[in-house]
Specification:
Number of helices: 2
Strand order of the largest sheet: 1-4-5-8-7-6
Radius of gyration: 16 Å
Largest sheet: 6 strands, antiparallel
Strand content: over 45%
CATH topology: Chorismate lyase
CATH architecture: 3-Layer(aba) Sandwich
CATH class: Alpha Beta
Helix content: under 10%
Order of helices and strands: EEEEEHEHEE
CATH superfamily: Chorismate lyase-like
Length: 144
C-alpha cells in the first residue's frame, strides 16, 4: 500500500546527476512524496518531481495508486529510464519514517524518466530500507 506524505508545486525546478549526465526539470514541477509499505512495514520513501506542463492537473488525482497509470491518462508513455543506486545509512528523519531505532543500511535510488518524444517526465529520489528490500534487474531486446 501507499500513503501520500505531501503533494506540492515546486517552482524552483530540480536537477539530478546520474553517471556523467545531468537531468533537469526547469520551471514548475509537482513534488510528490509517498511512503510505500510491504506487509504493513514502511519499506520505501519516494519523492518524485513531475513536469507540471505534461501533467497539469496531477495533484487533483489519486496519488496513492500507480503514477505510471496516471501518466498514461495524460497521454504519456515512458520509453527511457536512467537510474542509479547508491548505498546509504538511514538516520535522522529516515529512522522515524521507517520506524527504526538505530542507523540502518539503505539504498538511495535516483532516476530520470523520459517519454517517447524525449521529454523528461519525472525525476525520482527514493530511499529504500536495506534490511527488507532487494533489487532484481532484467533486460530484454538488447542490441549488440
Amino acid at each position: 500500500s501507499t500513503r501520500v506524505l505531501a503533494a506540492r508545486k515546486n517552482n524552483e525546478g530540480i536537477t539530478i546527476r546520474i553517471g556523467n549526465r545531468s537531468h533537469q526539470l526547469a520551471g514548475t514541477c509537482f513534488e510528490i512524496s509517498r511512503l510505500r509499505f510491504g506487509d504493513n512495514l514502511p519499506i520505501m520513501r519516494e519523492t518524485r518531481f513531475i513536469d507540471a506542463g505534461l501533467c497539469p492537473s496531477l495533484t487533483d488525482k489519486n496519488l496513492s495508486g500507480s503514477l505510471y497509470e496516471l501518466y498514461r491518462r495524460f497521454g504519456l508513455e515512458l520509453s527511457e529510464i536512467y537510474q542509479s543506486l547508491t548505498p546509504v545509512i538511514l538516520d535522522g528523519d529516515e529512522l522515524k519514517c521507517f520506524n527504526l531505532d538505530k542507523p540502518t543500511p539503505g539504498m538511495l535510488l535516483e532516476g530520470a524518466s523520459y517519454d517517447s518524444a524525449g521529454r523528461l517526465v519525472e525525476l525520482e529520489r527514493s530511499i529504500y530500507r536495506g534490511d527488507s528490500y532487494s533489487f532484481i534487474v532484467s533486460a530484454t531486446n538488447l542490441q549488440t
